[in-house]
Specification:
The chain contains ten helices and ten strands. It is α/β, with parallel strands linked by helices. The protein has two domains: about 10-175, Nitrogenase molybdenum iron protein domain (Rossmann fold, 3-Layer(aba) Sandwich), CATH 3.40.50.1980; about 190-285, Rossmann fold. It has a four-stranded parallel sheet, with helices on one face. It has a four-stranded parallel sheet with strand order 8-7-9-10, with helices on both faces. Strands 5-6 form a two-stranded antiparallel sheet.
């Protein structure tokens, strides 16, 4: 996975406020990495803190570069809720930990049975990375919500009762989404689907599906890999190709043309997490929307 690298010195200068004479905001702030996490955090936190998101709409978390304004705001934040395995997080969060020791960090991946990539090396296998798309399934979303709740109680125990009530409401909503998704997927005629970027690994695992990725090991697919996907699509009678809106459609169009499939756009990074989960299930079940 590609990584964003920013010199530690620049981050330290920005966080310390040396480049700006503006006074610190009195508003209490927590940060999250991506929009789906902001949805969960907003539901739990309410108006006790303002929830800021690092990766804005339309940007990709693999290579995103935070703005100077965001880094200044991080210097005033009380907590950061991360996935822990996104491309930009790998280098950036370590720098923040060393330059802003008062900022508390919480991983929303705790408790989750992570999908780990295995690669063959001679006569044995090694783990080479974690699938970071933990928000892509209602089953794992419950654990993300619990992790955010635990973090908020730690930094703001006086509001724990409110956070508990909000958590209960959110968990009930996630359960409703889970039930809707389960009922929709029961109508699916195929248990396999093609997707450009493999963002639905947890969704596929938790509901008994298999995702076939056009992207190969985070890179543009080779002609050989494209041909393998095309042959699988034909043999499995897969008639649609999912693609996230931030990715180029060229290779998806090649597969669609060769197999007579339809390209369908999805947006798993959208803020409206319940709507996206149900929409993806509708697409996989061929349910009219």
């Amino acid at each position: 996975m590609r990584r964003f690298i920013l010199p530690s010195l620049l981050i330290g200068i920005l966080l310390s406020g040396c480049l700006s004479g503006t006074p610190k905001s009195k508003e209490k702030i927590v940060f999250v990495s991506i929009l789906p996490l902001k949805y969960f955090a907003d539901k739990i936190i309410g108006d006790a803190y303002k929830v800021e998101v690092t990766v804005p709409p339309g940007a990709g978390p693999e290579t995103y570069s935070p703005t100077p304004k965001q880094m200044m705001m991080l210097g005033e934040a009380s907590a950061y809720f991360s996935i822990g395995y996104l491309g930009f997080e790998q280098s950036l969060l370590e720098n923040f930990k060393s330059t802003n020791p008062d900022l508390q960090f919480f991983s929303t991946s705790k408790r989750i049975d992570l999908i780990k990539e295995e690669k063959q090396h001679g006569d044995h296998e090694h783990l080479e990375g974690v699938d970071p798309h933990i928000w892509s399934s209602p089953k794992t979303a419950r654990l993300i919500a619990l992790n955010i709740f635990d973090g908020m109680v730690q930094i703001d125990p006086s509001n724990s009762d409110t956070y508990q009530k909000n958590l209960d409401l959110l968990l009930a909503e996630i359960s409703r989404v889970d039930s809707t998704v389960t009922n929709l997927l029961a109508k699916a005629t195929s248990k396999k689907f093609i997707i450009f970027h493999p963002a639905l690994g947890y969704f596929a695992r938790d509901y008994g599906f298999e995702q076939l990725s056009i992207e190969f090991e985070g890179k543009v697919p080779s002609p050989k890999h494209l041909q393998t996907v095309i042959e699988t699509a034909k043999s499995e009678n897969i008639k649609f190709v999912l693609i996230q809106k931030e990715f180029d459609q060229e290779n998806a169009e090649i597969i669609a043309k060769e197999t007579g499939s339809k390209i369908i756009q999805i947006d798993p990074l959208d803020y409206n997490w319940p709507e996206q989960m149900i929409s993806i299930a509708e697409k996989l079940s061929n349910t009219p929307q």
